[in-house]
Amino acid sequence: MRTRSATFATVATFAALLLGAAGPAERAQRLDAALRAMARGDDARAATDFDLLADEGSAAAETLLGVIAGRGRAARPEVALAHYYRSAERGYPPAQLALARALARGEGTWARPEMALRWALVAEAHSAGDVRPAASALAAELRGRLHPAAVIRAEALAAAWRPWDGFTL
Question: Is the dihedral of CA 78, 47, 14, 59 positive or negative?
Answer without folding.
Answer: positive
